[in-house]
């Protein structure tokens, strides 16, 4: 299949029109109505990108720039006047209204605990900005030992998975806990427990070994894209090398172009260069993360689908007594929040202190609060 074409512009949002799924080399049993995989999301299919020229015109350039600017707002500061008396600003009022809509998962813990009564919790955790603080250098986004210890403890009581935009190998290097399940590349690379009916039905799901030599299922729905992603990674490195502060990260099934350390005046240059490379790849799309442009295959797969897949792999689908909880800070985590909200199954918890619309039900300010929340969760152990 030709994953490269010179007639399309990179897709900025998920377009709708499906094309023949067999072109992706996937077995038809991946698709709906084939029990026992009926809980898996509807088919993984490619979509037809909009035809466009290779020029990032002024209008679209400003849309990119707005999205880039809003992608990682600074944490909320409480305003005090000079006499040190609290004087709420419009921003404070907006923040309080936002907190009323997305209450603190710590302050509302009793409510969460009541809902969890008689249920088995399944925990899903994002990595960057959730378990580790956001830092300038992505190579240095280490989680604290205290956080690692708490994740380890919580995983003793509840099945726990990390779902990250990083490559699975990289996120494992950071977390280094063997008792967890890992999904890298925004859920496009999942290592989960062995479940015969899944590996038998999905050609992109193979039996493999984890670091400890334990048998696992490895599901890589975008496997066919590996060479294209490699090629795009190299092109992006090449074409951004003269932009001071730009950094391109290979996340295996997706590529991150970081502009956190690029002077804001050059953000449009970053956008233009990424656009210039992607215009030749009709089957890649672009999403925005926290001061990062993320290039990924146009397949119908995201963190939400990864949650559904893992619940199925863990034998926790179709169970009324399971309460999935997903904690994440980024736009890509919204897909997972949405799956939980729409299925009325559990809670999304948004990490952050800058008001934004979300499909989450609760919020936590930062990774420190995430750790406090994990400690509280442990009080619910059976
Ligand atoms: O899904 P996640 O685990 O949250 O991964 C999303 C991206 O996280 C990383 O980038 C972000 O964190 C960096 C370190 O704090 C920060 O420098 C960067 O600005 C953030 O966007 C990671 O480097 C990306 O590859 C992930 O896609």
TrEMBL record:
Its cofactor is a divalent metal cation. It holds the Pfam family Trehalose_PPase. It catalyses: alpha,alpha-trehalose 6-phosphate + H2O = alpha,alpha-trehalose + phosphate. GO terms for molecular function: trehalose-phosphatase activity. Keywords: Hydrolase, Stress response. Belongs to the trehalose phosphatase family. This is Trehalose 6-phosphate phosphatase. It comes from Juglans regia (English walnut).
